[in-house]
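Sequence and structure are no longer studied apart. To make this concrete, we show below a single chain and its fold as tokens.
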Amino acid sequence: MSVFSSASLPTLGDIPQARLATSLPGADYALVVPMFATSDGLELLLWPSLSDEASHTLLTALETVNATGKRNEIRILPPVSGITSSAIIAVGLGDGDDVSEDVLRQAAGVAARAAATFRRVASTLSLVNLTAAVEGTLLGSYTYRGKRGTKTVDEQQGVDTPANDPAASRLAEVVFLVPAAGKKRPSKAATREFETALTTAQAVCFARDLVNTPPLELYPASYANTVAKLGKQAGLTVEVYDEQRLAQEGFGGILAVGQGSSRAPRLVHLRHEPKKPVSSVALVGKGITFDTGGISLKRGPGMENMTSDMAGSAAVVATVIAAAELNLPVVVDAWLPLAENMPSATAQRPGDVIRHYGGLTSEILNTDAEGRIVLGDAIARACEEQPEFLIETATLTGAQLVALGTRTAGVMGSPTLRDNVAKIGTEVGELAWAMPLPEEIVAGVTGSDVADLRNTGTSSYGGMMAAGAYLQAFVADGISWAHLDVAGPAYNTTGVYGYNPKRATGQPVRTLLATLAAIANNPDALRDASANGDRAAAKKQKKSTKAKRKAQASSKAKAQRATAEIHTKSKKTSKTKTAKAPQKSKKASNNSNKSKQGKGKRS
């Protein structure tokens, strides 16, 4: 059983059970079939065992209801003679010669919503592409009811008109049809592909659950506890830094952002370490569990959506757990800086100068630019492990939405890794666009009179790039680095589209997982050439840093022992004096005591 299914959150979203089959399952399953728009008219891809007569009957029935096969077109029909099913759900894929994985993924999501009022569904979309069919169907069928009641819609609603309310879904099981490889069983390759797609979909849905959880219930300490528990179940090494440890080790950025809240901040470290790794990657995700803007208070309208300001961290934790479940041959260190940005008498102020972990200082110009402040600490700490790659993601700037809209992430960083991450994201259906870090933007965040950095640029323009330039200052030499700003794509405030629901989308989990897989396959293809020359020096720095940390720990231990000895001597002295004290004043003595695939049949 997947670790994701054992997550302990106040309210979990639902996805149906999924399995493979090599034959049509029965009359109580609705059947999903793909349609294509060709130059010769409507064309279907059907299960090979269906008779020509049944295929012709279905094609005629769809033509009768004016089906064309255009992308995402839906037609729902009652049972057709010769096809054992409770209903037919036909979904369009457009031109049959131009069906990308994401075209199929989108169509599968649309079909899943159309099937929301059916209890069981069998899908032949898997004959086109198994991975895309599984991911699209499960992501499209995700339902999050939150604190709503359990009332379901009438069983007939959605037969003629697909249910638009995802909370109305009663879909419990989806069977994906694949050809038999022997003994009427799926091939080993199909089984592996299915399991990978299933784990990916579960990871995305878990990230959605985290983001959808209200901040009243998901705050730094509770979030850290949930993540730590799941991480241990997944076999990860888990480390949680509480506020005392953050203070002792100098995480000034995380502490500064969290100091206005009654809920103390945390830093969570999760490590996946396979037996024979081919590379190492640090993942860092912004975890602001609620963002009011702090003293630089946000406007009231829309502030409720700031429950999503920890979406980057949700994607990172889902990714590292999935990497462990898939046993990817890459060391993955995941870092989650968690804080709540609140205004209060103890909150940080514009004009403050803070010292980050690692020594860099920041002049605070705007307390609503807090994500980069906590990320700076986490990036600096992540670099001490000297990963080959560092990928960081955050719902960081409103400027991302202005520049790229609500569905396209901005990617900045080392050119080779940046361009590959943007390409991979777009290929898996999480649109991304590579962005530069121009010199004048960098100068805007590095030109403070009183600190190493300003936490905002000096211009009203290029805010997304200014945030990227700020983060770049914390990345050590020799590490290929990429920053994904997913302020728009991670949280959908409009209507459902494709396989994406309203609210949390789970982006960029699939981008991160696909990037890890690409690194596992060929790390040299994603590594920046400029990083190679710096790695020797960086490794020396890593040894130096570890030695320094060890020396600090040893020094701290000696100081604690010395303090303990002083206290012990003090207690002995006190006991001696106390023994004599009653002779002087009995009354004085009394007062002193109060103190965690295959081919189908074309028709």
